[in-house]
Amino acid sequence: MNFKKELAAVLFELLDQEITAAELELMIEKPKNATHGDLAFPCFTLAKVKRKSPNLIAQELSGKIQAPIFEKVEVVGAYLNIFLNKKLVSEQLVNSIFEQKGHFADLEFGAGGHVTIDMSSPNIAKPFSMGHLRSTVIGNSIALITEKCGYKAIKINHLGDWGTQFGKLITAYKLWGDAEKVKQNPIKELLALYIKFHEVAEADPSLEDQGRSWFKRLEDGDEEALSLWQWFRDESLKEFSRIYELMNVEFDSYAGEAFYNDKMDRIVKLLEEKQLLIESDQAQVVELTEEQLPPCLIKKSDGATLYATRDLAAALYRKENYDFVQSLYVVGHEQSLHFKQLIAVLGKMGYEWAEKMVHVPFGMMLKDGKKMSTRKGKVVLLEEVLNESIAMARHNIEEKNPNLANKDVVAKQVGVGAVIFHDLKNNRMNDIEFSLEEMLRFEGETGPYVQYTFARACSILRKANWQADSQPKTYPNSWDKEWKVASLLMEFAPAVKRACDNYDPSQVAKYIVDLAQAFNKYYAEVKVLEESMEKQARLALVYSVTVVLKEGLRLLGIEAPEEM
Ligand code: ARG
Known about the structure:
Elements: H1 3-14, H2 21-27, E1 39-42, H3 44-50, H4 54-62, E2 70-76, E3 79-84, H5 86-100, E4 114-118, H6 130-148, E5 152-156, H7 165-176, H8 179-184, H9 186-203, H10 206-219, H11 223-247, H12 264-273, E6 277-280, E7 283-286, E8 296-299, H13 307-322, E9 324-330, H14 336-348, E10 357-360, E11 365-367, E12 370-371, H15 382-400, H16 407-424, E13 432-433, H17 436-439, H18 447-463, H19 483-489, H20 492-501, H21 506-525, H22 535-556
Parallel strand pairs: 4-5, 4-9, 9-10, 11-13
Antiparallel strand pairs: 1-3, 2-3, 6-7, 7-8, 11-12
The site of arginine has 9 residues, from helix 13.
Organism: Neobacillus bataviensis LMG 21833
GO molecular function, one term: arginine-tRNA ligase activity
Keywords: Aminoacyl-tRNA synthetase, ATP-binding, Cytoplasm, Ligase, Nucleotide-binding, Protein biosynthesis
């Protein structure tokens, strides 16, 4: 179903096989303006190869491009504008969607290669922040998109579950903690203890010593310290799991920072062997002067290891354990320097695969133009946000469709979908303004709008008693009115490919908004349900749209209710 490929193959033969078909395919464009045809081929590169004027080449080629699917070829300057045969192409598209259903636009270029995706990665005993939400949503969608492209995605939750803060937390818990309260409300209680520690420590610095000594006990494997740590970790994870469940996100691994405790000596040894470790201010660092980066801190003066040391161990572990072809880190752009250093150090160690590591950064979530903070009083608990969104969706349903069955299920699908879509619809580097009202609108570029369009298309099919296996036997002569929608169906696979290549789910989000808009416009203009010669074919097109909208939403991690 790749017409660029077909055109490239025709050109390849015409040009005496001088330029590969793959190269030719890359030159083919899609005209911005539909009146200029469906495909455009600029002849500038050929002109250089053939030493002829591009306009002349365009003239010469135009008469020779002949295949049933190419209806008309026009020459405009150095461009060939090619018009597809609407009837043939539409019918091929609809037929392949019938056959492939959700597998329509599956791509194979990933060839089974493993892609590890470091995503979500919240910190134990701290609230799940908006940054962690973004990482979860973006990472999950990238995983789904890479899988559609033939890769195997491995989702890793690199929990922040180790560090000096646990010494402080244990100290505070021993002094003021209440086990029942922690069980009931782990994150809130643990955060309160942590805050209290800092308040009291300001007046009484001996507390810091106690914190250090508890952390030392933890590092030395002291039983009491370890069991408290384990308990904080378990309780926090239980709370995070509720959020993951709401969002339908699962992980392949929860190997967090603590997992690498016994794997860092090896890294330090390797760095020593390769003579990369240098003493600086009593700490051990790797100099990155050539790379024009500040030195990467490996070990502090007291021997304590750092965030970077753990990430070095983690990178090596992932390579050895998962043999990745790409290793992604979906982490906010504040950590760009950290990942640059990480990749540079591994490169210096001689690991070629360091080039396959990619930091996939994203912008901030803003509220009234300011960063949303999780500190002190301004805690924005994500679960509250999701629940509020679900409640608002539920309220909307009550107003618009009070007789709907499974209102609760649909409210969850719409409420959660709205939050996810709002996050994914823009390029991930953009900051996003947080607004529940905006997310839940039924018009404009929102999750509910796309879901609603899907549900509407489903209801048309229900009214017509349409069966997904009743592929039309005859097709109408003209697909002119259908062409805008049909030609968009053709764009799904390229949108998926762009999203995968650029780690950018917004390509898929924008695409399904375009398709939904085109479909709604079509439906307003054409009486699909009216008896006519075209009825079966039109229904087939409506069905095709439902398949692609549902699959597009799925790639974003959003469900598609058939009624709402
Ligand atoms: N826990 C960290 C934070 O909340 C994010 C960890 C990202 N992943 C990594 N491998 N460093 O900032």
